[in-house]
Write a structure and sequence with these properties.
Elements lengths: L9 H4 L4 H13 L7 H28 L4 H32 L7 H13 L5 H19 L2 E4 L2 E4 H7 L5 H16 L2 H21 L5 H8 L7 H29 L26 H15 L1 H12 L3 E4 L9 E5 L4 E8 L3 H20 L12 H14 L10 H34 L1 H4 L2 H15 L9 H5 L6 H5 L5 H19 L1 H13 L6 H7 L8 H19 L3
Parallel strand pairs: 3-5
Antiparallel strand pairs: 1-2, 4-5
Helix pairs in contact: 2-3, 2-4, 3-4, 4-5, 4-6, 6-9, 7-8, 9-10, 11-16, 11-24, 12-13, 14-15, 14-22, 15-21, 15-22, 16-18, 16-21, 16-24, 21-22, 21-24, 22-23
The protein binds zinc ion (ZN).
The site of zinc ion has 4 residues, from helix 14 and helix 15.
Length: 565
């Protein structure tokens, strides 16, 4: 072995250039691989792999903390071009080496299946195309981050404007909703242009990889081994027959209790049971203190994980201008520790987001003891069970933030959101399936508007969009995933099945359900999706019968919680 030792942290590794890493790859590629040295070889590769991942993750995180920081974007792009791209070629050599050796370990079987899928898709000519998609993603963030409206004489972010939609005064809500959406519509042309450019690039990537469609490409690249496009269609149909009627009931109940002739899009976030929106926290100290109390009580190990994040600054929680929108939990691959990013302004939604991201973070902690980073490459279908499951498991603890009756209000809000989410997810999944199966139409923004509008009307009945056609049909512009993480969304719907199963278990046996949840998380990707769901106490299925049972449980819980107010 001729290469110098690697630095032990990603901060030090930032100073290295490609030749430093390349010699490490070369060493690993040259080493003879036997069953005896397989463990050591995997450990070395895992170390190098995770170190480089973490450098990239840190460079990415900085771009989201300030979307106006041009230098940070340049550093990320520089890394993508000079290190990320050539690295892929070297990674491919090591994957090939491992695959052709025929060697494995019991816990690496899923990882090796993933590697085979990646190897099969790998084409060197796609590397610059993938980098250009990251650049286009930055353009999307730039458009989103620059938006604001003037409200009560003050410039506010669109996230802040969303908070106004919870207020009781209908005229103010309508005004805020229109200002926000008209501001987004101002960027209609750039969003459309960006979409077509991204769409064509994705098709080119699929063609280069020998795939007939981008859908085939994505299925393999997302490691969707345990379900097919037909299963997703079955799921969407089950949503149409089982969930849409219940969702319609929820909207109708809302319309009745607000005494409206029709329910408009600015009427959806008002709490039916209180004149003031739920306001769970005022500032970071309160949010962290009370969240800490929840996790301490739920399970001391989870409490320790949360404390570790607070003590080590692994969070950036509050909204400000030029911060990228949305929320995420990034698991730094090398230290195997999470970082939570979100845009809190003080709403109940923000609390849900924190609980959600905390679930992801706990997943990182639980899986940190696995030997190799490759064993922690879990599909979102189960990652989101960790996060959504934590949201559900937190229900009994809402009283840390609220009175009994406000806690019931919060649970109702959350349960209704869960129910209403499936139809919305079906619109997004249906839209993307349509777009990538019919690419000539899919690349055309006008056809996209028409298809989005059609799906919206089918899955989202009960909300009156009359006179708001342009805003309705451009809903796909407002969905970050469609631009950033193509075709990714059904995962959330599948995961919600698992999360609700965890919740149903916890109502019967709270300790047992939590133990199963943690057991599922700790397995990383050492087993497949059906086994992960099973370990967590659920079942990986998405037929009408499964949804009927979950919808029944939600509707039952909704009436129990309504009785507490
Ligand atoms: Zn998530």
């Amino acid at each position: 072995m001729s290469s110098r030792p690697l630095p032990s942290t990603s901060d030090e590794a930032m100073a290295l250039t490609w030749p430093d890493f390349q010699e490490q790859y070369a060493d690993l590629a040259e080493q003879e691989l036997t069953q005896e040295n397989l463990g050591d070889w995997l450990a070395r590769w895992s170390n190098l792999h995770s170190l480089l991942d973490e450098v990239e993750q840190k460079l990415y995180v900085v771009t989201t903390l300030n979307t106006a920081d041009k230098a940070a974007q340049d550093r990320l792009m520089e890394f993508m071009k000079t290190i990320h791209e050539p690295r892929q070629v070297e990674e491919e050599k090591l994957r090939q080496k491992l695959i052709t050796s025929g060697l494995s370990t019991p816990t690496m079987a899923v990882a090796i299946r993933q590697m085979k899928a990646n190897s099969d898709l790998f084409r060197e000519e796609n590397l610059p195309l993938q980098t250009s998609l990251v650049e286009m993603g930055n353009e999307y963030d730039g458009l989103c981050g620059a938006r604001s409206i003037v409200w009560d004489g003050e410039e506010i972010t669109l996230e802040k404007a969303t908070q106004i939609l919870e207020e009781g005064d209908r005229d103010r809500r309508e005004k805020a909703w229109r200002l926000k959406h008209e501001r987004i519509l101002e960027d209609r042309a750039p969003f459309n242009a960006l979409w077509t450019k991204m769409f064509d690039t994705r098709r080119e990537i699929a063609r280069n990889a020998g795939k007939d469609s981008y859908m085939d490409y994505i299925w393999q690249s997302y490691h969707r081994f345990d379900y097919s496009p037909d299963d997703c269609a079955t799921f969407r149909n089950a949503i149409l027959t089982e969930v849409v009627p219940a969702a319609r009931e929820v909207y109708e109940e809302r319309r009745r209790s607000m005494e409206l002739s029709s329910l408009r899009p600015w009427d959806l976030d008002v709490d039916l049971f209180g004149s003031k929106p739920l306001s769970p926290f005022d500032g970071e100290a309160e949010l962290n203190g009370k969240s800490q109390a929840i996790f301490d009580e739920m399970d001391p190990a989870l409490g320790d994980y949360y404390r570790d994040m607070v003590d080590n600054g692994r969070m950036d929680l509050f909204s400000r201008k030029n911060k990228a929108n949305g929320g995420y939990c990034m698991t730094y691959s090398h230290i195997r520790k999470p970082f939570i990013f979100m845009n809190a302004v003080g709403t109940h939604d923000n609390l849900q987001t924190l609980l959600h991201e905390a679930g992801h973070a706990f997943h990182a902690y639980e899986a940190a003891k696995l030997d190799y980073v490759f064993e922690a490459n879990v599909g979102s279908e189960f990652c989101e069970v960790a996060s959504m499951g934590m949201e559900m498991l937190s229900h009994p603890y809402f009283t840390k933030f609220y009175s009994e009756s406000d806690a019931a209000r919060a649970r109702i809000q959350h349960l209704e959101k869960q129910l209403l989410f499936w139809p919305y997810m079906a619109v997004i999944d249906g839209f993307q399936s349509w777009a990538y199966q019919n690419p000539e139409e899919g690349r055309n923004p006008a056809a996209c508007d028409a298809e989005w509008g059609r799906l919206w009307d089918e899955y989202m009945p009960g909300i009156d969009y009359s006179g708001l056609d342009d805003i309705k049909v451009t809903g796909w512009h407002r969905k970050l995933h469609i631009f950033h993480i193509p075709f990714y969304y059904v995962e959330y719907g599948l995961a919600q099945v698992g999360a609700l199963q965890v919740w149903m278990n916890s109502k019967k046996d709270p300790a047992g359900a939590l133990a199963a949840y943690r057991r599922g998380l700790s397995l990383g990707s050492t087993v497949g999706l059906p086994q992960l769901f099973e370990a967590a106490g659920g079942k990986f299925s998405f037929d009408a019968g499964t949804l009927r049972e979950l919808v029944g449980a939600i509707m039952g819980e909704l009436s129990d919680q309504r009785a507490k107010i």
